[in-house]
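User: What would this chain look like folded?
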Amino acid sequence: MITVSQNAVKEILRLMESDPSSKESYIRVMVAGGGCSGMSYKLGFESTPVAETDKVFEQDGVKVVVDQKSYLYLAGTELDYSGGLNGTGFTFQNPNAKRTCGCGSSFSV
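Assistant: Here's the prediction, encoded as structure tokens.
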């Protein structure tokens, strides 16, 4: 399962409200090769149909979709959002990551 913190839910809903075309969208979370630790997180809105093999999680009106391969690396992860002065943006609390880079956007298992 992938969970979404209340801060992340609020920010995602705010972003969806600010862009009328994203009202029927969901958040796609992926893992791709790259980054300074070997694998990086990808996050974005999508409105295309969900594939049969995708994992779908819904929390407080936010639908999170993860492809089967990425889910192997993301199971148990929490998507969070920090709006403070030191690093505004989405962050991932991934229990599967053995090492992360300083900025938190890449990891290794």
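The two ends are 18 Å apart (CA to CA). If you want, I can go into more detail on any region.
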